[in-house]
Amino acid sequence: MAGGCNLNRPIPSQLEQAGFAIQKLESMYLPGTPRIAGFNYWGFATHG
Asked: So where are the chain's domains?
């Protein structure tokens, strides 16, 4: 079910462990979406 999605991954720490430096990161539940699948991150990171 859901194609193997894992909705509880710690995205910011996984980016940092992969060598990225988070420059800007925002997160929120998207309006009108089910809470189980409506949490999103957006922003940008640099590698190096």
From this structure: 2-47
